[in-house]
Design brief:
alpha+beta, binds zinc ion, four-stranded mixed β-sheet, N-terminal domain of TfIIb, 2 helices, rod-shaped, about 110 residues, 2 domains, 4 strands
Amino acid sequence: MKPYDPNRPCAKCGFDKASTRYCSTQVPATDGPYGKEYIERQCQRCSYTWQEIPLDAVRSSEELLAGMAGELLAALAELTAWVADSGAADREMIERAQGLVQQGQEAARV
Ligand SMILES: [Zn+2]
């Protein structure tokens, strides 16, 4: 499913006016992270219907990803420190990992 866009044209006939209806009933399990709510759109010319992701559900997936990135960075920083202490990797490898951690942390601050 794509995020809700009030200006999205009908995929079947190209008409640019579709009705919008919020639905909170069951959607197929394959839609996973977006949960059980969706926006139902119906083309006002050919009656084709499709589903879009509610705006607040899109934002919560972004927050979820940001949280995961933060956890991965913390884990990578810890792992890099452990590998550096253990002497199990060469200097170049450790510096590369430290560089990645730093890049990620800088990106996360933007
Ligand atoms: Zn249509």
